[in-house]
Amino acid sequence: MTMSTRASQAWVIARIEMRRAFFSKRALWVYLLALFPSVIFIGHAVDMKFQQRRMASGPKVSAAMIDSVSRGETDAAVLKRLGEPADDNEWNRRKYKETHAPNGQRRYEELPDLERHRHLAYSDGKRRAYLHFVNGMLESKNVRDLGNFEEDRSIFAAVFQYFYLRLAIFFGCLGIFMNLFRGEMLDKTLHFWFLFPTRREVLLLGKYMAGLTASCVIFTGGALLSYAAMLWPHGGVEMQAYWQSVGWSHVMWYGVAAVLGCVGYGSVFVAAGLLLRNPIIPAAVLLAWESINGFLPDVLQKLSVLHYLQSLCPVPAPLDSDVPPLLKMLLNPAAPSSKAGAILGLMGVTVLVLWAASKAVRRLEINYGTE
């Protein structure tokens, strides 16, 4: 049998399996997992667009005027100097005095005077200032950017590396690739494939191609949709400069990282489905290993799929400022591998794992009674 014939057989098997991978009921949660971040980014983008249009249609003041406002000023003085605000809300709040009863129980006594609150909002076109007055005096000032592109890029980098690479692609590949053989054994339908006049290695290749196509389309599409939603509310000179410099490169490398994540994790889980009767335990062990990756020595960090996937990401994930200092000391990320090294390393591991899976599928015996 020639290689072209085997390739044609693998493609036929892949086309049949792709229908199941894309449209089976088992795949519904995979779509939800892949599209969940995009819903959040789209909601954030819509809110930003609404705020930008609202600010564009309202009165504007200069950035210097907003910066000149300081605590202790009266609302009348601010209104006189800055003019009409974009928002002006007033309300009264009752004041209470805490007292203690003879038995020690705390009580709150209502005072006759009302506390007057006022909220003014100003915009300079790029920022929005929220001024909160209590009894006519400025109590707090909060200035926010209407859209911080660098901050949004960092947020997406964190979502991609902490959610997509560590959770979504991992569990998505677990669900898709584990069912390629293990699911058929549970459904008692695998023997139909073994009656197909082709080598079992070709069957493995066809099923793997189907799972890989489905996972790449679903998770790469979900990640790029989230990225597009993140970019949507931004525009102007900043975005033009971004696309002319590193924009398309970032899109490409995020896509490559998602695809190679599916390639690597997919090969591991299809092999686990063939070699182990209960592959959930090794999947949990692998998840734990990937989760503690940042705490391991450099040599051990390089023995994980996650290390090479993170090396491909164009923007490093920010570390939360709320992380305890002791945890920051323990975190010791290894130096990222070169992009070429990361790709070759992942492909090498994939080939090795698929070779082991081909040996396992050749020796596989069907005994539905033990499943």
From TrEMBL:
The chain crosses the membrane at residues 28-46, 163-181, 202-232, 252-276, 283-300, 340-357. Keywords: Membrane, Transmembrane, Transmembrane helix. Coiled coil: none annotated. This is ABC transporter permease. It comes from Paludibaculum fermentans. The lineage of its organism: Bacteria, Pseudomonadati, Acidobacteriota, Terriglobia, Bryobacterales.
